[in-house]
TrEMBL record:
Stretches for region Disordered: 92-118
Organism of derivation: Castellaniella ginsengisoli
Function text: RNA polymerase that catalyzes the synthesis of short RNA molecules used as primers for DNA polymerase during DNA replication.
Family in the record: Belongs to the DnaG primase family.
Textual note on the cofactor: Binds 1 zinc ion per monomer.
Keywords, sorted A to Z: DNA replication, DNA-binding, DNA-directed RNA polymerase, Magnesium, Metal-binding, Nucleotidyltransferase, Primosome, Transcription, Transferase, Zinc, Zinc-finger
Annotated Basic and acidic residues bias: 96-116
Keyword Metal-binding: yes
Domain notes: Contains an N-terminal zinc-binding domain, a central core domain that contains the primase activity, and a C-terminal DnaB-binding domain.
Catalytic activity of the protein: ssDNA + n NTP = ssDNA/pppN(pN)n-1 hybrid + (n-1) diphosphate
Protein name (database record): DNA primase
InterPro entries: DNA_helicase_N/primase_C, DNA_primase_core_N_sf, DNA_primase_DnaB-bd, DNA_primase_DnaG, DNA_primase_DnaG_DnaB-bd_dom, DNA_primase_Znf_CHC2, DnaG_bac, DNAG_N
Length: 656
């Protein structure tokens, strides 16, 4: 049996757009992609794929699911074979034998170790932030860089003191191996330890789910290295992460593009001036994993580099990483600032509007590639042109087939004085290069540009699937379609709270008598939020969990929270894969498929908090009503009523 943990890891690695795109021609339709459904005959596209939720749904026949389900149902392959095929495409090996108790214990230990490292990083972050408030020289440095306290707080900036063992005051056991594994301390050959970060402004690094995974530190006085990142750990890999991506989500949507800069100070400085769509690589060249995340964030990517020789070389490396991803529905551009300027210094010198104007004039990838090739060879002589074609061959080989590559070949043919047919023959004779029509070299992952049909340009963004969708109100107690007992009520004994051991152990809801759980409009609203944004589960506090655990109409919500907590799903598709296909929860997810295809809310956390406040107001009001009905016969009843009334007044006033 294939472990559920492996399936979840696999779904986190693959991109459903790549998988579906091998079999279905997809085009942009707002935040999603549209195509003709492969599961039924249709002339108008109703088959929708969500890149953010890793989920497909056909509005015509109701087919829906994950990349794994699509592969299995479309090709007819048995589920294990579909898993092996998809795993091979991303360089993963499927565990073929049942997991022994020892192996399961090791898996559990690894998960617990990850959680422990997370707690250690959070504890260090609290210390660094508190230290910044007590360090005038660090505050003065940030002020000189033009940063306000508000922006520093928004990005969680902190300060690591110059004390060699400053964290010894934070952690009772400074010799704990977890401090070493988390990258916070360094152990010398003689066994003595000291803090990795000293005398630095600290920049916390979060993953896309908002979880703290590492740090970057910058010296505020002369010294080397000026920038220092956390080492590679089980939580942090600089080749996979982009600084500021989590914080920039709303800014990327507002600006319509993502700006890639070279340092975290650039990201924070641009945010200070109102440009909130910048992200930064962490001291490494752009990688395929970076491109995958950038592609999901926006269909317009602008790379910013210094205008000097080093900047041009870095830009050329980034261009080569981009080639497997080029397509008709994505724009990749390169911005070269004047020499001696980076985005931080440029915006401070000339203002944000001047930088925006520069962004509008950023060089398209095609122009940068052709100009750079021309600059490296003398195109006035046959030898130079032949040499230019030779250098261009592996570059074209990395591009997926399609309209973009065709346009590039025609322009390059004119540049080297060949006909398009002659150039095509030379490129074919050279054979496919790395990444051509296949996985990205070194990753086993196919770029999202593969499988995009020529001419599949940007579709109108005002289509029926691009608008924001809300939950459809239902009568109190309405059951999911297809339930065997539509009138069945919620039995709190039959549906244990989400933290019940049995539920946490399996992630599956227990069924009694074959009945379907009833769903109120509020439960539907919470389910939709959790499905669209599983990361909300990690932010639930004890008070919120207590409120949900005892509410009589939120059984499915508790089940979904338990499932998300158990399997660690990162998107709606992964949650659907983890749910028992015969359960009410799976039916609930299917019923919400249409709503899940709507664009993401601008602030899902605020929507979630508002929903829980509404639940709490209703709960407190019901308790007050019951006390009134009882006649407030005892002093305890009257005291309780007064306490609840004050609480209700605060909730209605929005004070919490």
């Amino acid at each position: 049996m294939i472990p559920e943990s492996f399936i979840q890891e696999l779904l986190a690695r693959v991109d459903i757009v790549d998988v579906v795109g091998r079999y279905v021609k997809l085009r942009k339709g707002g935040a999603n992609l549209l195509g003709l459904c492969p599961f039924h005959n249709e002339k108008t596209p109703s088959f929708t794929v969500s890149p953010s939720k890793q989920f497909y749904h056909c509005f015509g026949c109701g087919a829906h699911g994950t990349a794994l389900r699509f592969l299995s149902e479309h090709t007819g392959a048995p589920f294990p074979e579909a898993v092996r095929s998809l795993a091979a495409s991303v360089g993963m090996t499927v565990p073929e034998e049942p997991r022994s108790p020892r192996q399961r214990a090791a898996d559990r230990e690894r998960r617990e170790e990850g959680s422990r490292q997370q707690r250690i990083l959070d504890q260090a972050q609290a210390h660094y932030r508190a230290a910044l408030k007590q360090t005038p020289e660090a505050i003065e440095y940030l002020k000189r860089r033009g940063l306000s306290g508000e922006v520093a707080a928004r990005f969680g900036l902190g300060w690591a003191s110059r004390d060699r063992r400053g964290l010894a005051a934070v952690f009772d056991h400074y010799e704990d191996p977890a401090l070493l594994e988390s990258g916070l301390v360094i152990e010398s050959e003689d066994g003595r330890r000291h803090d990795r970060f000293r005398g630095r402004v600290m920049f916390p690094i979060h993953n896309q789910r908002g979880q703290l995974i590492g740090f970057g530190g910058r010296l505020i006085e002369p010294g080397e290295p000026k920038y220092l990142n956390s080492p590679e750990t089980s939580l942090f890999s600089k080749g996979h992460e982009l600084y500021g991506l989590h914080e920039a989500r709303a800014g990327i949507r507002a600006e319509g593009c993502v700006l890639v800069v070279e340092g975290y100070m650039d990201v924070v400085a641009l945010a200070q001036y109102g440009l909130n769509n910048a992200v930064a690589t962490l001291g490494t060249s752009t990688t395929p994993e970076h491109l995958r995340k950038l592609r999901r964030a926006s269909d317009r990517i602008v790379f910013s580099f210094d205008g000097d020789g080093a900047g041009r070389k870095a830009a050329w490396r980034a261009l080569q990483a981009c080639l497997p991803w080029v397509a008709e529905d994505i724009s990749m551009r390169f911005l070269f600032l004047p020499e001696s300027h980076d985005p931080d210094s440029y915006v401070r010198a000339y203002g944000v509007q001047a930088l925006r104007a520069y962004l509008d004039e950023a060089m398209p990838l095609s122009r940068f590639m052709l100009d750079e090739l021309a600059a490296r060879h003398d195109l006035n002589e046959a030898e130079g042109r032949a040499s230019c074609v030779h250098e261009a061959r592996p570059l074209f080989a990395q591009m997926p087939e399609g309209g973009f590559r065709l346009q590039m070949e025609r322009e390059f043919a004119r540049q080297v004085r060949l006909t398009p047919e002659e150039l095509a023959q030379l490129l074919v004779a050279a054979g496919p290069g790395p990444g051509h029509a296949g996985p990205i070299a070194g990753t086993g992952q196919r770029p999202s540009g593969q499988g995009v049909a020529p001419g599949a340009g940007l579709a109108g963004r005002g289509g029926p699937f691009a608008s924001e969708g809300g939950y459809a109100p239902e009568p109190e107690g309405a059951a999911w379609p297809g339930s065997e007992n539509p009138g069945a009520g919620i039995d709190l004994e039959a549906v244990p709270p989400w933290q019940d051991a049995a539920l946490r152990g399996s992630g599956r809801p227990r069924r009694r008598g074959g009945g379907s759980r009833q769903v109120t409009p509020m439960a539907r609203r919470l389910l939709r939020l959790l499905l669209a944004h599983p990361a909300l589960v990690s932010g639930l506090g004890d008070q919120q969990l207590e409120l949900l655990a005892h509410h009589p109409h939120l059984g499915l919500v508790r089940q979904l929270i338990g499932l998300a907590s158990t399997c660690g799903a990162a998107h709606a598709g992964a949650l659907l894969q983890a749910a028992d296909p015969e359960s009410d929860l799976a039916r609930a997810i299917k019923d919400l498929s249409t709503e899940l295809m709507a664009q993401d809310l601008p602030d899902p956390q605020a929507e979630w908090d508002d929903a829980l406040r509404t639940i709490e107001r209703q709960t407190v009001q019901e308790q007050c009503d019951r006390l009134i009905e009882s006649g407030l016969a005892t002093d305890e009843d009257r005291r309780r009523y007064q306490e609840l009334s004050r609480r209700l007044a605060r909730l209605k006033a929005g004070a919490g």
